[in-house]
Amino acid sequence: MIDPALTARKLTLAYDSKPIIEGLDLAIPAGKITVLVGPNGCGKSTLLKGLGRLLKPQQGFVYLDSTSIFKLPTKTVAKQLGLLPQGPTAPEGLTVRELVAQGRYPYQNWLQQWSEEDEKEVETALTITELQAFAERPVDSLSGGQRQRAWIAMTLAQNTQILLLDEPTTFLDLAHQIEVLDLLYDLNQKEGRTIVMVLHELNQACRYGDHLIAMKDGDVYAQGKPDTVMTKTLVQEVFGLECRIVDDPVAGTPLCIPVGRKVLGIV
Amino acid sequence: MERVENRVFIQSRTTLLTTGYVVGVCLLLTCLLASVALGVADIAPLDVYRALVSPDGSTEHLIIRTVRLPRSITALLVGSAVAVAGAIMQGLTRNPLADPGILGINSGAALAVVISVFLFDAASLDVYAGFALVGAAIAAVTVYGLGSLGRGGLTPLNLTIAGAALTALVSSLTTGILILSQRTLEEIRFWLAGSVAGRDIELVIQVIPYLLGGLILGLALGKQLTTLSLGDSVAKGLGQKTVWIKVLAAISVVLLAGGSVAIAGPIGFIGLIDPLFVRIWTGAAYRWNLPYSALCGAILLLLADIVARLVIQPQELPVGLVMPLLGAPLFIYLIRSRVRR
Amino acid sequence: MQKTKSSPFPWLVLRTQVLSARLDRRVPKVLLAIGMVTLAAMVWSVGQGEYPVPPLDVVRTVLGLPTATSDYGFIVNTLRLPRTLVAWGVGMALAIAGTITQGMSRNPIAAPSIIGVNAGASLAAVSLIVVFPGVPIAFLPFAAFMGALTVAVLIYLLAWNGGTSPVRLILVGVGFSLVAGALTNLMVTFGNIYDVSQALVWLIGSVYGRSWAQVLAFAPWLIVFGLFSLVLSRELNALQMGDDLARSLGSRLEWQRGLLSFSAVALAGSAVATAGGIGFVGLMAPHIARQLVGPSHEGLLPTAALTGGMVVVVADLIGRLLFAPIELPCGIITAVVGAPYFLYLLIRDRK
């Protein structure tokens, strides 16, 4: 495998001394879309935060290009790694352009608060996400899909090689979900950005992910290509759900079809 | 299998809480006794009993019956009343910082009393009491009115904001009057500090109906408040008439807080700290939370009053000032250990 | 090479070899408007009093030009001008402190008073007035400031638990306010009645009798920490997005919060030390400013500052006009006007 973008070694992450993840080893492949899946409470968001240096590990390390992410100055990391948390909120009245401009934070300092490069990057981000028409509108006046695009535009302006996204499609309707996922796919294909995201929807994970990581109880249960990972047994053991796996008639990727009591006729 | 375990759990929890309450009541009675017994002249418990049951006209017995007992009973009643008012308010505003002080009820009552002294030369606790009750009621109605004007109606946030704004406004007016009239300041400043000392039993008896009414109403609303704390939409979905419940809760708070201010002046802080303690023990279920708050509040105020009496003998400190001093370190400790985010 | 270009952006951009910055286009216009209102209020206020001075003469006297009638020098330049300048400066400082507090706590009803500064300063000042009445008034600001600083540091230390959080800071601040309030009340209840009256005036906030000594003592604080806060506006923008996002953007969270808190305390503490606990300015001014220029702090901070200055100057003016010749402390006016206005703002814009 090519040099991984991010590596975790013996990572232990905890909230209030209750460990969620213990002694985890993981490598995130560069230039690919990695999707974290798993049941509620399995530690996906925690892992993402740990990888994004938002959570200080009790033990273990996270390496970015073979340097521990916590040893690097935080601004340096911010230029290589961007993270979009779940359900972000913008201050009231902030316009789309102002929001996207925030993404330039790591490149600015006391003297240089708005360089030409900043301006260019913001324009580019707005163009890629097709938000130029909305640039002067307040973020909170946009629809769910547009708002999420604005947040992604912000991380784009940050111009990082790696993007971590925590449930970027939750709370969006289906059309907007696909819109966001297609955008991320474009970024990966056209610019080779590494994308790591947590998704709830298994089928979207299979369709868009190059590398799937299934988590259970704070540990990696299985990882690999969607074809290999998404099996009936895995879904049963990780999610406790009986299902059938077929080939998606549109995309050809694995499609998980849950069974459930209604189908079985059990009342 | 799980069902049986749950039932056992619930039963044991109920038993635990009931036992706890009984223990608490015993503790309360002990504090009551201590409050009557301790003071400038310490009196033996046996004498206290005799004074109550078969008074013999001695000075000691007189002190107990006319000074100590009313004072202790006042402390007990006011403590429970303010604590329950605070707990109800915290439930209504879903804000752990809510207490009658923050929602403007204490300030409203205080302003009314200050005005009564300034404009009408009021001079006795009886008259103060009347004005205080009226002031508290007006403040409560105003806060409610202002709170419901916000978009979204009577949300916790709107209520809190309205309360904070009203409190600031009213206390400035109060301070303004006190600056203008030194006479008023002189008359009223001791009352403003909040105290249970020297309360005439007649006055206490007059206010008891309000306090008891508020207490019973509040306790009866316990279950409804728990439902309300799930959120307006959920409560309405469960069939609760949320507006009615909120109004009834407000009435309860006015009776409790207004009545307390009427007797003892503005005593803040109990309503703030007491429900926080209690919640650790009982959780947020109001069926238990409210009775426990009443108990805890009574004990707290009794203890604080004992301290207020003893700490710089023979001088006395107003209990309304002693309590924040005692309670704040505890409050800060609580925050350090419990507030994570 | 200096370039000020109006791009297709709604921003004004300044770019030189070393420096680059952007500002919302509305800001200069708003600042100008507020500035003019403030100036008018200041001229009126200086002209107001037992010996009225016509506005034109006020301007002439301040500029050192000769006036038609008598010599207004003393009244204008020694008595009234410093007082108005103090009102203006204190308003600005409180407004900046309020903007920082609201931005850091992400809470629209946060005000400098909750960071315990008022409580500490009031306690120190009231203690001085009531317990040591012999001590000259000149020591008051210093004592108040030390009180503010001590309490602020204590709050920060007590709220620190492996890091700070806005919620903990607020709650500990509330706790401290209650304690300081109780102690202050203790003194109000038992102190000598004349001293207590004086203490009450200080508590509510007033610029009565402020002289050039106070202006000169206060000005450095305002200038240094005001500018410092302005430079930190970018950090405030990042903090406003939430801890996770701020960190992911590369903000050194704890460090920035510490610097900003320090700045807020310095500004609020010195303001309270100079003019007492003038309420609501720190709460109102940022909101008003936000309506005018939006939430980006590069423009918000200066706008809030000027708004705050204007509010206190106008409040002082009203306080002197309303029941002339009796003067109401400006702290009362800011509260009586501020509270309803604040409620109105919040009610109107609840989303």
Keywords:
heterotrimer; A: 267 residues; alpha/beta; six-stranded mixed beta sheet; 10 helices; B: 341 residues; mainly alpha; ABC transporter involved in vitamin B12 uptake, BtuC; 14 helices
What would you give as the CATH superfamily of chain C? ABC transporter involved in vitamin B12 uptake, BtuC
The succession of helices and strands of chain A, N to C, reads: EEEHEEHEHHHEHEHEEHHEEH
Number of strands of chain A: 12
Structural class of chain A: alpha/beta
Number of domains of chain C: 1
Low-confidence segments of chain C? 1-7
CATH uppermost class of chain C = Mainly Alpha
Assembly context of the chains: heterotrimer
| CATH architecture label of chain C | Orthogonal Bundle
H and E string of chain C: EEEHHHHHHHHHHHHHH
- Which residues of chain A sit in consecutive blocks of at least 5 with pLDDT less than 50? none
Form type of chain C: globular
- Order the strands across the largest sheet of chain C as they lie in space: 1-2-3
- Class based on secondary structure composition and strand pairing of chain C: mainly alpha
End-to-end CA span of chain C: 45 Å
Got a strand count of chain C?
A: 3
Q: Indicate the proportion of strand residues of chain A.
A: 25-35%
Q: Specify the overall morphology of chain A.
A: globular
- Give the proportion of residues in helices of chain A: 25-40%
Query: What is the strand arrangement across the widest sheet of chain A?
Result: 6-7-8-3-9-10
Describe this structure in words.
The complex is a heterotrimer of chains A (267), B (341) and C (351). Chain A is α/β, with parallel strands linked by helices. Chain A has helices spanning 44-51, 74-80, 96-102, 116-128, 144-157, 174-191, 202-208, 226-229, 232-239, 260-264, and strands at residues 6-15, 18-28, 33-37, 59-64, 67-68, 81-84, 162-166, 194-198, 211-216, 219-224, 243-247, 254-258. Chain A contains ten helices and twelve strands. In chain A, the strands form three sheets. A six-stranded mixed sheet of chain A has the order 6-7-8-3-9-10, with helices on both faces. In chain A, 43% of the residues are buried. Chain B has a single domain (2-340), classed as ABC transporter involved in vitamin B12 uptake, BtuC. The radius of gyration of chain B is 21 Å and the shape is globular. The two termini of chain B are 37 Å apart. The mean pLDDT of chain B is 80. By secondary structure, chain C is mainly α. Chain C has one domain (8-63, 74-348): ABC transporter involved in vitamin B12 uptake, BtuC (Orthogonal Bundle). Chain C contains 14 helices and three strands. Chain C has a three-stranded antiparallel sheet, with helices on one face. In chain C, α3 runs antiparallel to α11 (253-275), α4 packs antiparallel against α7 (193-204) and α6 runs antiparallel to α7. Mean pLDDT of chain C is 83; it is low at 1-7.
